[in-house]
Amino acid sequence: MAEIIPLPTSQATTPLAFLNESKDIMTNNYSDGEQEIVSVIVAYKCRDGTVLTEYYNADFGTKQEILGHIQCDIIDQMIRANLDRYGL
User: Which residues in the chain land under pLDDT 50?
Assistant: First the structure.
């Protein structure tokens, strides 16, 4: 499992502002070297429940790998929110 680096929670007030903020983070921090971004997976949830997805340089294996990291991030967040339930 690769290191998961949670980015700061966005203060953006619209989806477009969030994406612009993400672009700035990618450009300023992850555009070269060992942590250069090489694949991107984006999912959008619409008001009516429709989910849109798009991918850059992500075959099915990369999609599955990134999905696994997202699931680990969710589990970590759940545990941190409920430390008392896990005896930590």
Answer: none
Task: Sort 22 into a burial class: Cβ within 10 Å, 0-12 / 13-18 / 19+.
Answer: middle
DSSP for 34-82 reads GG----EEEEEE-TTS-EEEEEES--HHHHHHHHHHHHHHHHHHHHHHT
Contact 46, 52 (CB under 8 A): yes
Whole-model pTM?
0.77
The dihedral over CA atoms of 72, 78, 82, 85, expressed in degrees to the nearest 10, equals -60
Q: Nearest Cα to 59, choosing from 40, 37, 36, 42?
A: 40
Q: Do residues 13 and 24 touch, judged by C-beta distance below 8 A?
A: no
Q: Phi first, then psi: what are they for 54, rounded to 5°?
A: -145, 155
> Based on the number of CB atoms within 10 Å of its own CB, is 28 exposed (0-12), middle (13-18) or buried (19 or more)?
exposed
